[in-house]
Design a protein that fits this description.
Helix content is 24%, strand content 33%. The longest helix has 14 residues. It is an alpha+beta fold and 241 residues long. The chain has a six-stranded antiparallel sheet with strand order 4-5-6-9-8-7. Strands 1-2 form a two-stranded antiparallel sheet. A two-stranded parallel ribbon has the order 3-10. InterPro entries: Bact_HTH_transcr_reg, Chorismate_lyase_/UTRA_dom_sf, Tscrpt_reg_HTH_GntR, UTRA, WH-like_DNA-bd_sf, WH_DNA-bd_sf.
Length: 241
């Protein structure tokens, strides 16, 4: 005879409240029902409700203010998996938002010594330097500083014609397919990263310092992408295996 295993009641509360937050029944800034009201609604003890609220807090969905109640937090514009490498543009689109790119610089120059060392290229290597603001529904979610070896482009390439996603340019313009990324991750607080109209609001970032390669291990780009804290969220899948 099969034994039916009942999920913990706290899980039921978490699933229900997550769905209502996702569906907009509890928009950002809304105060959730009190613990007593949730106990009555779900027919559970206060300890069970507190366990559910703790999980929602760990998930970054709510915050509790002593004496005032529990409130729904603003959610990031875009969510991504840190273990996957792919186009930021596609992740924004997959989040149901319209991606955008604003270019502040497209310059051909020689690599600096520290860049040459990080990229593993000769000191006289010429690169295309890009400076971009990446947006989701017109809100800035990242500032990216990219270096692409000049010899990947045709001899008559005009940097000013480059627009939109860097990954799309690799695929559509150059026929190249980024398949491998080697990245370092840092938390950064700086007043010198952001630029443009929203610069004053952006001081805290998650930096992805990344080398991009194709399947043949050809270096395609070196990117330092500063993701705006609270606007672009990375999730990591961890297992015990």
């Amino acid at each position: 005879m099969a034994t039916h295993i009942r999920r913990p009641l706290a899980d039921d509360i978490v699933r229900s409240l997550k769905a209502r937050i996702r569906d907009g029944d509890y928009p950002p800034g809304t105060r959730l029902p009190t613990e007593a009201e949730l106990c009555k609604r779900f027919g559970v003890s206060r300890a069970t409700v507190r366990t559910a609220l703790k999980e929602l807090h760990v998930l970054g969905l709510i915050r509790t203010q002593q004496g005032a109640g529990t409130f729904v937090l603003d959610q990031p514009s875009v969510q991504d998996g840190l273990e996957r490498m792919g186009s930021i543009t596609e992740r924004i689109r997959a989040s149901g938002k319209v991606p955008g790119h604003e270019y502040g610089r497209r310059t051909l120059r020689q690599v600096l010594p520290d860049e040459a060392e990080r990229m593993g290229v000769p000191a006289d290597t010429e690169v295309l330097e890009l400076r971009r603001r990446i947006t989701a529904d017109h809100d800035v979610v990242a500032y990216s500083y990219d270096l692409i070896p000049r010899d990947l482009f045709p001899a008559d390439f005009d940097p000013d014609t480059l627009s939109g996603s860097m990954f799309a340019a690799f695929e559509n313009l150059l026929g190249l397919h980024p398949t491998l990324g080697l990245a370092k991750v840092h938390a950064v607080m700086s007043a010198h990263i952001a630029w443009g109209p929203d610069a004053a609001k952006h001081r805290l970032f998650v930096l992805l310092d990344q080398l991009h390669y194709d399947a043949a291990h050809t270096l395609l780009a070196y990117s330092k992408t500063y993701f705006v804290e609270g606007a672009y969220e990375f999730q990591i899948v961890r297992t015990s295996d």
